Amino acid sequence: MNAIEISHLRVLRGGRVVLPDLSCTVSSGIITGLLGPSGSGKTTLIRAIVGVQRVLSGQLTVLGRPAGSPELRRLVGYVTQSPSVYADLTVSENLAYFASMAGVARSAVPAVIETVSLGAFRQTPVSQLSGGERARVSLAAALLPAPRLLVLDEPTVGLDPVLRQELWDLFHRLAQDGVSFLISSHVMDEAGRCQQLILLREGRVLATGTPPDLLRHTETKSLEEAFLRLIAAEVTS
Amino acid sequence: MTAQRTLATSGRVLRQLRHDPRTVALMLVVPCLLMTLLRYLYDGQVQVFDRVAPVLLVLFPFTVMFVVTSVAMLRERSSGTLERLLTTPMGKGDLLAGYGLAFGGAAVIQVGLVLALVLGPLGLQIHGDLSALAVVALLDALLGTALGLFLSAFANSEFQAVQFLPAFVLPQLLLCGLFAPRAQMLPILDWLSSVMPLTYAVDAATRAAASATWTPDLGTDVLVVAACIPLFLILGAGTLRRRTP
Ligand SMILES: Nc1ncnc2c1ncn2[C@@H]1O[C@H](COP(=O)(O)OP(=O)(O)O)[C@@H](O)[C@H]1O
Ligand SMILES: [Mg+2]
């Protein structure tokens, strides 16, 4: 079964066509990477999937229901590109509040703080955290209700390599437990960590497939090169 | 909407206030200082102070809660937390009622302090019903919160939100009958005055301070103010869109 099914999705953002006619699928229980340069429409697509973006036309099904259905609010976790947490509250206070909103017991908070390696910052106001630490508070808030689908918009940007590795390990562990992931990134070296890729450029799907598939298909050695080759092929055709 | 989510929201808003002691101090101390200033400004004319003080008593919570709420709500929008909350099972009512409860509670403390000051050390002579005056002041604080929640949707920056005070509150203040009696206004201004909620709030404060019993006129004023609160909350809920363009 597919976690997300999109067909002929057309989206305007601020009056401009950002996604003219997009179709693709995201499989269940694996990590799908949404890769594309800045401005290619990743955030717009993600916002449509979690039901906060108005769409013009097309079909968008998430976990078998139309995107934006009220039942999906319990099943889908969303991490925005810039951390959306209260800067004037501590890490614990933030997560206790988001737990209440998600209908989760506050006793779940300490464990999720450990999961994102923020144990030392439990009582620290978010305003005193670095960008990467804030991003992890934001991620922790999305993990709280144990969602079946996690949609993460550039979650590992600005993190040091060790932490980035830790988070990817966490994503893979959760995926093994059956959680589906859609993770966006504009950095190609993250693509190799995904099991499936959707390459986006100027609001269009350039290619989809597993990383080895894409390398074989484009006869290249790195995903960066593969991406360039695909763009060149599109321009000439 | 659930009681648990509403209470958690007002708890969170109050916790944010607690992390900002300077704002709390400004909220509580500034009205007291202004009242004291007013008292000595009219040192020789105590009857003027007796007339103006009740009106200010309800204007403070209104303006302070209006500004604080609109900035808080604007931050909720610009920080992305509103977008996050709207993707959770939380209802819009939880957010609006949570804000109302939190700032209503803050207003109770604010009004209580100012009341204690004016009735005690400043020696305000009130002929009317003290409880009515307190009710009017509290309703005004909630009105300020509701109006702030609604209008914050039309501000894109803190600069704009703060300017809503001169844009939306000052005209109401000028036309409410405090500066010029409504009977002497141009008909169009009198009509404008009659559709502005603050007119009824100021009127209610004056009446509550003047009469020892609840008069029908006071009842009408209080009803109008009370009805405006859910009205602006509902309008505010309309501005909380789950989907944005
Ligand atoms: N709030 C907005 N209002 C109007 N246009 C926007 C807004 N945010 C993004 N855009 C435009 O939409 C396009 C896609 O942006 P976005 O989805 O954020 O891309 P990405 O996440 O891949 O960087 C860009 O051309 C950008 O200029
Ligand atoms: Mg983006």
Strand runs of chain A, count: 10
CATH fold category name of the largest domain in chain A: Rossmann fold
Strand content of chain B: under 5%
Q: What is the mean pLDDT of chain B?
A: 90
How many whole angstroms does the radius of gyration of chain A measure? Answer: 18 Å
User: Kindly state the mean pLDDT of chain A as a whole number?
Assistant: 93
Count of domains of chain A: 2
The CATH homologous superfamily of the largest domain in chain A corresponds to P-loop containing nucleotide triphosphate hydrolases
Q: Indicate the structural class of chain A.
A: alpha/beta
**Count of individual helical segments of chain B:** 10
How many β-strand stretches of chain B? 0
Distance between the termini of chain B: 25 Å
Low-confidence stretches of chain B: none
Secondary-structure-derived class of chain B: mainly alpha
Describe the biggest sheet of chain A? 6 strands, mixed
Order of strands, main sheet of chain A, comes to 6-7-8-3-9-10
Determine the fraction of residues in helical runs of chain A and give it as a percent range.
Answer: 25-40%
User: How would you sum up the major sheet of chain B?
Assistant: none
* Largest interface, C-beta closer than 8 angstroms, per-chain residues: A-B, 34 and 26 residues
